[in-house]
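Researcher: Sequence recovery benchmark, item below. Answer with residues only.
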């Protein structure tokens, strides 16, 4: 029997990792064998940690960009859980797909849809193409809008250009999830300071 490939996505702070850890506990409570992996690019620690609820659990495998996930995961695993899945390559996403088909396990992945500049991660794009189920998680912005954007700040100033991956807490980088309207308000304010009034209209990002 084939397993299912599930992609749970949302902006930072939407409690994706908390859901992952709780879901793992529930699967174990049902006597399923579970396995937890995370990418090497998220090098903050070897644990998968959620700020919501102060939950934490060590990853069973830390996956490097050149690793073949299909070969690493034993077929006795019932459910594979994947944190920060956006950092995996499209080829590794296909390896997760193979696990559901050839080894019959369920693969539950959790991560971001897009980066700080609103561009999708390659791994996220592949999941949107092949996942059996997509689940969006979100919270409301302070203005009441839906938080879907991940704003990145360096020394307190919003960034719109730069390397796609910059880990929070390193190099004075911080992140905050925002609704599109609040995100572009901050972008406009930065552009106005640099070169005078420039407006990004709502229809430009809808």
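Model:
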């Amino acid at each position: 029997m084939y397993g299912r490939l599930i992609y749970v996505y949302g902006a930072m702070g939407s409690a994706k990792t908390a859901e992952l850890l709780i879901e793992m506990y529930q699967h174990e409570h049902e006597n399923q064998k579970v396995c937890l992996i995370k990418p090497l690019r998220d090098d903050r620690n070897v644990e998968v940690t959620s700020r919501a609820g102060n939950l934490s659990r060590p990853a069973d495998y830390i996956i490097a960009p050149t690793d073949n996930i299909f070969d690493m995961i034993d077929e006795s695993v019932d459910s594979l859980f994947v944190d920060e899945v956006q950092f995996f390559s499209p080829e590794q996403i296909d390896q997760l797909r193979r696990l559901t088909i050839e080894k019959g396990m369920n693969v539950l992945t959790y991560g971001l849809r897009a980066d700080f500049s609103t561009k999708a991660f390659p791994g996220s794009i592949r999941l949107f193409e092949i996942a059996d189920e997509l689940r969006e998680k979100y919270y409301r912005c302070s203005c009441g809008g839906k938080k879907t954007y991940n704003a990145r700040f360096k020394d307190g100033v919003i960034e719109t250009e730069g390397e796609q991956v910059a880990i929070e807490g390193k190099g004075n980088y911080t992140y905050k999830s925002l609704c599109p309207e609040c995100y572009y308000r901050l972008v406009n304010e930065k552009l106005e300071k640099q070169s005078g009034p420039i407006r990004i209209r709502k229809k430009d990002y809808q």
